[in-house]
């Protein structure tokens, strides 16, 4: 076990991720953890994260000096490096100018930099710097503005770097963390996603005991992986509620039911409220009103189901690390739902304790975990799908007929992307049904039918995106098939707008 002691740095989970990538188990703990608590964990290595404070600042985070004499190797990063220097009698000073961004660095001989080019690029983000290293330390890297960009005391296994080895801009930075773990801490790196499952299962069992747990399952990647993991820990004490609002993709509701009920043998309640949602949406055309109605109705249905089940103690949330807004709260302990949490439409006034087993993971790690848990690739690599579903992809008023047309067109589009090998390369692709009818000719007959829009975007987070360039031949096949196979459609258009200025969805 490696402890990552968090001083409020923005990259705390990125450090944890690098440790996991080196196949070493780690836990992120707040700097307020006492020396007794740290000793009780019996760590084989300790990493201090960066943080926004200055070691001289009032109320600046500190550590008990004893931590440096436990015989456990310590790697300090940025603020963590300065704190090590300051605590052990070195001198930390304020630089005249902030050093920020990619910076040229010269590495000297050190076990940390084994296998790396000596003259290299690193990522700096600091104002304070180590002016004098504590006794027993030697400087092992420097930049133009920073004479002690790294220091070490090999006798005591204490290491510190001013820059951020965890970010990608530090060339081969991951090797520094690896060298620390493997060569200094002597950790072999045998930890895997399989071990993550074992640890989480134990943690969930310890926390939940034999109490009842509820999960709102959407069939999306995060909630599915969270549910299967919790189910592995507590079995039938988990009940999943799947609200089928009728705004899902083709056969999606049946798939979700088949996967979770038949494959994973989970307690799944599918609430079929398709008509209820459609009648609420009747006559409504404004996108935000549609969202509001769907969101509120979802909460109402969920509440009703939850009430029927009697007292439930915990609620599973598929929160993943990028959703975690607060920093400095590395402890994955339970907290009571707050309104700003990523609750995906769960009532704010029901007081569940929450279980968030994916809180530390990045999206690609969640996917790996899901595959490890035996969830199919098809579900794991599914494109993101908005909560209001087809409700915002049928432009204007939502009707059963329009949803059906759109489902058929979208299914053909996805099939063709998959058979062209493009699906996984695309961040998100879908068909939309604008509220537009156009004239066409089929055989000898004039037609007057719906227009279908197809959209595909490349993105890494959905915040910005480029329109994806689907090859013409594939577009041609998609268009031909949709017009030939979907009744009431006679024209297909391709959306070539990036975000910004467009959004990914049309509404
Ligand atoms: P936009 O359209 O804002 O979409 O560029 C960015 C990402 O968010 C998804 N999206 C939503 N997800 N509820 C959701 O849960 C919504 O109301 C909603 N609107 C957009 C969209 O699919 C894309 O992945």
Structure, described:
- By secondary structure, the protein is α/β, with parallel strands linked by helices.
- It folds into three domains: 183 residues, 3-Layer(aba) Sandwich (Rossmann fold), CATH 3.40.50; 188 residues, HUPs (Rossmann fold); 96 residues, GMP Synthetase, Chain A, domain 3 (2-Layer Sandwich), CATH 3.30.300.
- Helix 5 packs across helix 6 and helix 5 crosses helix 10.
- The two termini are 47 Å apart.
- The site of xanthosine-5'-monophosphate (XMP) has 11 residues, from loops.
Short key terms for the protein model shown above:
single chain; binds xanthosine-5'-monophosphate; nine-stranded mixed β-sheet; Rossmann fold; 507 residues; five-stranded parallel β-sheet; 31% helix; alpha/beta; GMP Synthetase, Chain A, domain 3
Could you tell me the mean pLDDT?
92
Shape: elongated
Helix share, percent: 25-40%
Largest sheet: 9 strands, mixed
Count of helical stretches: 13
CATH superfamily of the largest domain: HUPs
Question: Per CATH, what is the topology of the largest domain?
Answer: Rossmann fold
Give the class from helix and strand content and strand pairing. Answer: alpha/beta
* CATH-level-2 architecture of the largest domain: 3-Layer(aba) Sandwich
Q: According to CATH, what is the class of the largest domain?
A: Alpha Beta
Small-molecule binders here are: xanthosine-5'-monophosphate
Number of strands: 19
Order of the strands making up the biggest sheet? 2-1-3-4-9-8-7-5-6
For the termini, the CA-CA separation is 47 Å
Alpha carbon gyration radius: 27 Å
